[in-house]
Amino acid sequence: MAVMLAESGRLASDALDAVERVMMDSRLSFERMGDEDITGSFTGGWCDYLLWFAYRADLDVLHFASGFEMDIPPARRQAVVRLVSLINESLWIGHFDLWTEEGQPTWRHALLLRGTHGVEEPQIVDLVTVGVGECERFYPAFQQVIGAGLSPEDALAAALMEPRGSA
């Protein structure tokens, strides 16, 4: 049985125009890649993060991904897949995966816009803040699994450790 969806009538430019305004206001570098995509970057504490927004009219959804370039040797790929699984169990919003083509860790989340008045700029700010924040939070865990050979469980435990006191 086929599911029939109604078109929202919303233009991709509506959501992506809001993304552009946030990117400009935040002084982030970005490029509009046609009518349905915006790519950009953000310099974090560990590395430069790649940002990607895409709008899909048939689903009336704005998709966001934030990732970082990291070479994963074939011998460590299974450990990284296990780490991604463990990380995802601890997340309230979004999820990590390894994109097949690039093979690099990426945090992703989508905003369903059907029945709303469209995406609002504070939602975009929250999306980028959470996405980059999760990449910053777990970047060391990926590094420890890939570079130091730490087990995914130990790397995750270190990433989730809450510091106490002050130096």
Short recap of the structure:
The protein has 167 residues and is an alpha+beta fold. The chain has one domain: Yope Regulator, Chain: A. It has four helices and six strands, in the order H-E-E-E-E-H-E-E-H-H.
Which strand order do you get reading across the main beta sheet?
Answer: 1-2-3-4-6-5
Structural class designation: alpha+beta
| Structural domain count | 1
Strand content: 15-25%
Q: How many distinct helices?
A: 4
The CATH top-level class label: Alpha Beta
Rg over alpha carbons: 18 Å
Mean pLDDT: 87
Quick one: overall form? globular
Tell me the major beta sheet.
Answer: 6 strands, antiparallel
Q: Give, in order, the helices and strands.
A: HEEEEHEEHH
Low-confidence stretches: 1-12
Q: Distance N terminus to C terminus?
A: 62 Å
State the helical fraction.
25-40%
CATH topology: Yope Regulator, Chain: A
The multimeric state of the shown protein is single chain
Throw out a few tags for this protein.
Yope Regulator, Chain: A, 167 residues, six-stranded antiparallel β-sheet, alpha+beta
Description of the structure:
- With 167 residues, this protein is an alpha+beta fold.
- It has a single domain (12-160), classed as Yope Regulator, Chain: A.
- It is 38% helix and 23% strand.
- It contains 4 helices and 6 strands.
- It has helices at 12-25, 77-90, 121-147, 152-160; strands at residues 30-32, 37-43, 48-56, 61-67, 95-98, 105-112.
- Strands 1-2-3-4-6-5 form a 6-stranded antiparallel beta sheet.
- A hairpin with a 4-residue loop joins β2 (37-43) and β3.
- The N and C termini lie far apart (62 Å).
- The model is unreliable at 1-12 (pLDDT under 50).
